[in-house]
Design brief:
By secondary structure, the chain is an alpha/beta fold. It is built from 11 helices and 12 strands. 44% of the residues are buried. The structure holds ligand PBG.
């Protein structure tokens, strides 16, 4: 036989051939689109560090939801920007809070759209931490109190389910949050409501633009006592294992791009759907480079998201979702 024996290029000769042997395909069903809802009327203000992403008031939310449905996106992830913050994050679990109001409205307009509620306190607390803070007596240092936070997170999740959320997505990284929320939901009669756990959430600089968008930057300290160290992969397994044992229905890795090894590991080690969160700075960096003409936005986004699926993500939360489904349709 003459050299070379293997001619890998045979299957790359034409677009038709390449598409026949393509291993990973992005679809509209993979996409989850995050939305920021705010109080007031006629508000559609672009988040400066996230071009193309807006704060929307309730009156302008309906047309946005109609557009999302028409595009074939199946799920949205709702974030609230409240007008009131306090130490206990009370607006997070207020039956008439911004997120609860938005959930009710969206389910009214689009009953088939899957509504996912982010369950955290950081947008609702004046200190910007994801839980309740207390002063440690010995050191005088303010610490986030795990078990007290759980009580409030359970109230938040139950109020979101009462408003009509289909999926609860706790992003707070308190220990035992899946168990506590599962028990709270079941007790309140919401045993059918799924939990998409932010199982492996790193203390990441890639959340910067989101914190501008959600006004949720911590006012002191950082989130390193509850979010994971970017250096750790084995610890990710421990986090995911406890979430599985506590009753999580889906496991999320966040951020996505710098943590594709973790996506792959979770896919291999567990049998639950894996969700990758393509976070704010991943989006902003692409937007900034594209605005400068340094990259082809469409190609870079599609390549990035297909990599997330190739690594094992079943679903991708991304601010690019609307563009992606348009591109998938050939627009
Ligand atoms: C709330 C939360 C954050 C994100 C999602 N939920 C911010 C954080 O933990 O500081 C980040 C999303 C993004 O960057 O796109 N805890």
């Amino acid at each position: 036989m003459s050299y070379p024996i293997a001619r890998h290029r045979r299957l790359r000769r034409s677009g038709g051939l390449r598409s026949m042997v393509r291993e990973t395909v992005l679809t509209a069903e993979d996409m989850i689109y995050p939305i920021f809802v705010t109080h007031g009327t006629s508000i559609r203000s672009e988040i400066p560090s996230m071009p193309g992403v807006y704060h929307l008031s309730m009156d302008l939310l309906e047309s946005e939801i109609r557009e999302i449905e028409a595009l074939g996106i199946k799920a949205v992830l709702l974030f609230g920007v409240p007008d009131h913050k306090d130490a206990q994050g009370t607006s997070a679990y207020d039956a008439n809070g911004i997120v609860q109001e938005a959930i009710r409205a969206v389910k009214g307009w689009a009953p088939q759209l899957v509504v996912i509620a982010d369950t955290c306190l950081c947008q609702f607390t004046e200190h910007g931490h994801c839980g309740v803070v207390h002063q440690d007596e010995a050191s005088g240092i303010a610490v986030v109190d795990n078990d007290k936070s759980l009580e409030l997170l359970v109230r938040t999740a139950v109020s979101q389910a009462e408003a009509g959320a289909d999926i609860i997505a706790p992003s707070n990284m308190m220990d035992g949050f899946v168990h506590a929320i599962r028990a709270g939901l079941d007790q309140a009669g919401f045993s059918d409501i799924a939990i998409m756990s932010y199982s492996v959430k790193y203390a990441s600089a890639f959340y910067g633009p989101f914190r501008d968008a959600a006004h949720s930057a911590p006012q002191f300290g950082d989130r390193k006592t509850y979010q994971m160290d970017p250096a750790n992969a084995r610890e990710a397994l421990r986090e995911a294992e406890s979430d599985v044992a506590e009753g999580a229905d889906m496991l999320m890795v966040k951020p996505a791009l710098a943590y594709l090894d973790i996506v792959k590991t979770l896919k291999e080690q567990f049998d639950l759907p894996v969700v990758a969160y393509n976070v704010s700075a991943e989006y902003s960096m692409v937007k900034a480079a594209a605005a400068n003409g340094w990259i082809n936005e469409r190609s870079v986004v599609m390549e990035t998201l297909v990599s997330m699926k190739r690594a094992g993500a079943d679903l991708i939360i991304t601010y690019h979702a609307k563009d992606v489904v348009k591109w998938l349709r050939g627009e």
